[in-house]
Design a protein that fits this description.
GH18 endo-N-acetyl-beta-D-glucosaminidase endo T, GH, 9 strands, alpha/beta, Glyco_hydro18_cat, 381 residues, TIM Barrel
Length: 381
């Protein structure tokens, strides 16, 4: 029997006030992730990259976790990087993933599914910063040289990367930060995580053209000093900071300002509701074809963000990635074997995410609730 969330809500009415808390051990967020991968990770070609940010983790109307697995189980999708976001550094507090610590049980599904993404060859990264201020303040990650503040908050970020097995970190600096501060952060990440760790930045497109720059520091100077440590740039060609409606802005970045096209991704909003300068598929396709013809290859395409990506919207957000695959890399689709044990673990994690939200009020009802993602149907090994 599969219960809808409306029926669950009616069963819960009146019970939530007396519900006992469950899953008090916050470190249990990793409880169902095996210590070793069950499968040999797939290897995908590096270029061109297809990157998507995964910020909205739960459906706003139902509270159900949003699955990222259609990005590898639906046909004809060749995602290369998934960026879990947004991590926030909080003065006087601890790192949060959006509004909660990343080991909160509501993220059971998220962290269990990232392991499957890795098995499919997708690089799973984090992103710190974004529009909310605080992560790069002079009291946190941009603290003075030798400051205990930097060591404290950088240490929190470093430990988060270790704990959740992130394969890289995207530095989305949307507040003023010093040149010294960003250089130090890149250098510390490289020193602590080694040559295979992926370090990226997310400048607005105009910042690569010596125009409007919301980060404060000079990206060209950073590339000159630390370019060997930075894998690529998720350039935001939207919200008035550039456009991919034509090749012009991207060409300006490369031809007039000397950037390597293989390091610059054409960042796009995946839905007009996610920001300005949204470009329809056919128009974007024409732009990308023109750029690849001119430069031989480009860094790829980045999308902000997954949950409501068009043309499928919230029902089928993976269709955006399928469309981008058809532009970039139609012959590089990964194949993944999912076992019954993996499907069972994912189903259990999904239910425990609900228990974290609704507490003991669910009681035995939880055994009758099935995820809106049918993990068992994915079993093929």
């Amino acid at each position: 029997m599969k219960l809808s969330f409306l029926s669950v809500a009616s069963l819960l009415f009146g019970a939530l006030s007396r519900a006992a808390p469950v899953l008090e051990d916050r470190n249990a967020a990793l409880a169902y992730i095996p210590e070793e991968p069950e499968l040999v990770p797939r290897t995908l070609p590096e270029l061109p990259r297809l990157v998507i940010y995964f910020q909205t983790t739960h459906d706003a109307s139902t509270g159900q976790p949003i699955s990222m697995l259609p990005l590898i189980t639906e046909k004809n999708i060749a995602l290369t990087h998934l960026i879990v976001c947004t991590f926030h550094i909080n003065l006087g507090g601890v790192v949060h993933l959006n509004d909660f610590p990343p080991n909160d049980p509501r993220f059971y599904t998220l962290w269990n599914e990232t392991r499957i993404m890795k098995d499919a060859g997708v690089k799973v990264m984090g992103m710190v910063g974004g529009a909310a201020p605080g992560s790069f303040d002079t009291t946190t990650l941009d603290a003075a040289a030798g400051s205990a503040d930097f060591e404290l908050y950088y240490g929190q970020l470093r430990d988060t990367i270790h704990t959740f097995g992130l394969q890289g970190m995207d530095l989305d600096v949307e507040q003023r930060m010093s040149q010294r501060g960003i250089t130090r952060l890149v250098q510390r990440l490289r020193a602590d995580f080694g040559p295979d760790f992926i370090i990226t930045l997310a400048p607005v497109g105009s910042a690569l053209m010596q125009g409007s720059n919301i980060s404060g520091f000079d990206y060209s100077a950073l590339e000159d000093s630390s370019g060997d440590d930075i894998r690529f740039y998720n350039a935001q060609f939207y919200n008035g900071f550039g456009s991919m409606a034509t090749p012009r802005d991207y060409e300006t970045v490369i031809d007039k300002h000397g950037w390597d096209p293989k390091k610059i991704l054409a960042g796009q909003v995946t839905n007009p509701a996610n920001g300005g300068s949204w470009v329809p598929f056919d128009q974007l396709n024409a732009t990308i074809k023109s750029l690849r013809s001119k430069y031989g290859e480009i860094g790829g395409i980045m999308g902000w963000e997954y949950f409501n990506s068009e043309p499928g919207g919230t029902e089928e957000p993976w269709r955006w990635a399928r469309n981008m695959t058809s532009i970039l890399r139609p012959n590089d689709v990964p194949r993944l074997a999912i076992t019954a044990a993996t499907a069972a673990r994912l189903t259990r994690a999904w239910k425990d995410s609900l228990l974290a939200k609704y507490g003991g009020a669910l009681g035995s009802i939880v055994d009758k609730i099935l995820p809106d993602v049918d993990y068992l149907s994915m079993v093929n090994a």
